Records
---
Amino acid sequence: MKLYGITGWKNSGKTGLMERLVTEITGRGLTVSTVKHAHHATEIDHPGRDSYRHRQAGAVEVLVASPLRWALMHELRGAEEPPLADLLAHLSPVDLVLIEGYKTAPHPKVEAHRAATGQPLLANDNPTIRAVASNAAPDTPVPVLPLDDTGAIAEFILAEVGL
């Protein structure tokens, strides 16, 4: 599996870009999975649901299955967050895994950048960032792509990973 990341500061457009890239790349006939990193206690289950009740009761893992999908939730129960490589080992094989977040992980990335956030570019201090997708013309040594040109960003990523 090929890996490529989308990173950037909060409100820089990462999630929207990820969504558009998945649509663009799967539309080209490739298979894509995604990994989303969150810095807060993300809750994907809801109080009152059977699976939530199983977790609250102390289950380490809860697998929910239906005719349409299945999901596995793993409670860390005080253990450290696993490294990205350990998480990737749980994914089924696909052509490309797009990873949102994980700014310092070693895989190559495109930085999503919106001038309005007022945040400095990560690309100038992070050698894993290979391009910046921006709604401005930031000063950086890496290529700058228009943030709203999903096709061009997809082409850049696919060329980088050899797909």
---
Amino acid sequence: MNFLKGLLIRLAITALAFWLATLLIPGIRLESDSVTQTIITLILVAAIFGVVNAVLQPVIKTVGCGFYLLTLGLIALVVNGLLFLLTSWIAEQAGLAFEVDGFWPAAVLGALFVSVVTWILGAVLDRD
């Protein structure tokens, strides 16, 4: 039960971070007709982002370990931006109204923003 509660809290936090990103970062848009549709879209995009990160990030870090060491971890900005773009592409293929204009600056700043906001809100709200 605690696992499910934690998962739902993280999903809500990520959805909130995506909503804030659509408001603050140029090039990231969410166009919907109603509040309900916006909330559903944000939750689905957050779920897609979570799955993309859970599946691909460990593989990329393992395969690209040398690049992470060589760039002192700065390659993570590029990887996270590309994963953010992939999330946008998957959302578009699924018929969701979430769009990211391109890699720079929208995807990189969006990924950085969502990561920071989810980290801060997760530290505040996800206390057991």
---
Amino acid sequence: MTIILSTLNARYTHASLGLRYLLANMGDLRDRTRLQEFVIGAKTTDVVEKLLAHRPRIIGFGVYIWNVEETTRVVAMLKRVAPDVTIILGGPEVSHEPEEQRIVQLADYLITGWGDVTFPQLCRQVLNGPKPLMKIHAGAQPPLADLALPYSLYTDEDIAHRTLYVEASRGCPFKCEFCLSALDKTAWPFDLDAFLGALEALHARGARLFKFVDRTFNLNIKSSLKIMQFFLDKLAAHPDDPVFAHFEVVPDHLPDALKEAIAQFPPGCLQFEIGIQSFNPEVQTLVSRKQNNDKAADNIRWLCEHSHAHLHVDLIAGLPGEDIASFARGFDRLVALGPHEIQFGILKRLRGTPIIRHTEPYRMVFDPYPPYTILATDRIDFTDMQRLVRFARYWDLVANSGRFAHTLPLVLGTAPFANFMALSDWLFANTDATHRIALEKLAALVKQWLRGRDVDADAVTTAMANDYAGQVNKPATRTKSPPTGQAAPQRQARHLAA
């Protein structure tokens, strides 16, 4: 085996779409190329030993915000024990600001941007000579029609146990400065018939869980409708063996034709990830985000009231120009709309994103280590930012978990953000922890806090009983979409998983 394509995924259920694209487009080198994925947290020596067991000449690593530190250790060890192995890096984390990154200094070559065509070309030069003198190579962007689709490379094991990432398009026409997609000039669609043919083959092999990584699924409504019809046809033909599809949608673009298609999906088959990020028009303007807030709110309300789609709606704390009071107003507005989950994200400075231009004017301080989380701004100091971080964690445990469905309204009352922040501060003061809180202990703490707030004791007892049916370790049955293999996804980084 000559070439290994590898990465460290965030968890086993994630299957790297990017590596499969590379393998599918290796041409004459495909038979000499092997895919080998790992999961973050693996022992470095074990990863290196497994990689070298194949006696590779070249190892290509996909480097992302969540695995760069561990991948750096792997590359450093490889260079010590197998210095003759050529290391080629690619991926969003190393495609920008590479000169200051140790992993780039350790590696032999770096491909920035698209690697589908450039990686196999570079491999041929390394294997056959002459070896390139330049370390950094800008990835060529071919027409999408020239790329071989990778979906046949999902194994039966992948289909049975992992999330299958798919994309009907690449790129994004929007310029939100906190997102790497801001660097794209437009969105490029794949040939829809070829794409649907690949989905058909996956479905015939037993695939039922599809996660679309398209930046904007509902950008081209005609294509969106055709894809949705594909899934509706599968549901009609196999009502006892349903499919599940996850899409990211723009909230203020939901025409009637798309609503009619969405309304046809039964419960548990459709999930939408919707980025609101901020309801503050001044903040939206600062980060170059165009959004009709009233229309977005109306569409979210319609989805909640007239569809069975499971809604994940994103907000980002720490954006330039937004203080806690502004964020709270947006949070309360979103709670009132009633989405199934609110993904409370904390701003991260992804390498290459234009958000960096606001650093000095808004005194934005970011953690220098991955995932480069915002630590303070001119509107939110470090202490309050940490309160928001804890709020986000407790929100996942209490609200997004679904385990407190009946109790949560008692917690939120008429001032959701203020009340949940009070609970968050109290929980941290009484536990000094945001992780590894047993469900039984968490339930007891929430109950204790509610009683301290003069909430009717009978109402609290009834709500807890309805949530747990007397067993705190067995949450009540609730309507929930199938798992997507991605916990608490955030709009900023979610596309990097591909």
